[in-house]
Amino acid sequence: MSKVSICIPTYNGERYLEETLNSVLNQTYDNFEVIIVDDQSSDNTWEILNRYATQDDRIRLFNNEHNLGLVGNWNRCIELAGSEWIKFVFQDDIIRNDCLELMMIGANNNEPLIFCHRNFFFDSKVDHTIQKAYMAIPHIDDIFSGTDLISPRQICQAVLTDSRNFFGEPTSTLIHRSVFERFGLFNSAMVQLCDLEYWIRVGVNTGIKYIPDPLVQFRVHSSSASSINSKDSQVYRSRHMDRLILLHEFAYNPFYRALRKFTKKNYPCRNFKRELAKKAFWLKNLANATSVSEVDTPKNYWDITAKNYPKINTSAYLLPYELKNWLNKKLIWRLHLNK
Fold first, then answer.
1. Are 246 and 201 contained in the same domain?
2. Residue 333 above 80 pLDDT?
3. Exposed site from 76, 125, 179, 198, fewest CB < 10 Å?
4. Quick one: pLDDT at residue 235?
5. Mean pLDDT value of segment 257-270
6. In terms of domains, do 249 and 207 share one?
7. By C-alpha distance, which of 85, 82, 66, 91 is closest to 8?
8. Is residue 172 domain-shared with residue 255, that is, in the same domain?
9. Same structural domain, 217 and 276
10. Model confidence at 229: pLDDT above 90
């Protein structure tokens, strides 16, 4: 019976943390450790964690020396996990008591990325618009009906058809350690699509295994990362820049070679590099048109992203857009003026 590391990254999670911990500790599958990494919480999270740790020796507590941020803390959990299999559970989510048992049945190295069906659980204060957006996201069942083994080719087809995260959040996964050794960790440059990018990165190479049982509840509340990222002040970074980074990975990342090969054969009119240049040109102009008086601005996010991904600023595919823009600024307005 393989051991599982249940990883719980926490940050100011006192509101729902006890409910989450109880669901984790009451699993019918008992060969697991619980790795909890707190990212410098300022509420009572650490006190709650210490109380649980003194009562259950399966819990291993860690407190980051400085705040790593959302994705940085996910990756820290992975680095500290000591088991063959890794199961994420977020600080406000709930897993069914037989979640681990059912996910571990038939778990093997040939299908290293396993998903189960997840239900959304909305706090009463969550805006109705956000609720509708979540409920409109398809599940794996909707995309791949009646199958539990989904091939890399099917993943390629699906992600080119639907850009939403139909896979699910990390709480709905069970991941073999070899996945992180082969494909690396989550991309900390992203804030909203960090899990979707990883599922695609792995899935187009390995495929996925799916369990249709609703074994987890993903809670959405007003202070969750998803709700915060949907606010107007964060939309440029969470929606636009994350999509730009994802498109960059499609175009250039070696792990997406299978996706590019599939696209070239089945969608020959698509060119990820050209699509990236078009989107990058628009986002750069949008960033330059906004105020630069504050740190959290589109201009700031653009500069950081361009430093990490220089091809969004230097690709030859940008030349037609830059030339057209130059002509508009330097010549065309003069022609109109002389009429």
1. no
2. no
3. 125
4. 85
5. 97
6. no
7. 91
8. no
9. no
10. no
Residues in Cβ contact with 269 at an 8 Å cutoff, skipping those fewer than 6 apart: none
| Tokens 């003069």, residue located | 334
- Report yes or no: 214 and 116 within 8 Å, Cβ to Cβ: yes
Same domain, 239 and 218: no
CA-CA distances (angstroms) from residue 276 to 234, 250, 252? 21, 9, 10
pLDDT given at position 223? 64
pLDDT number for residue 243: 96
Q: What span, in angstroms and rounded, lies between the C-alpha atoms of 42 and 50?
A: 15
183-209 pLDDT per residue, tens: 999 999 999 999 999 999 999 999 999
Looking at the structure, tell me whether residues 8 and 134 fall in a common domain. yes
Domain boundary among 173, 204, 229: 229
| Residues 29 and 110 placed together within one structural domain of the fold | yes
**Residue that has been written with the tokens 């002389």 in this structure:** 338
Give the residue numbers spanning the domain of 56: 4-229
* Residue 114, beta-bridge partner list: 174, 209
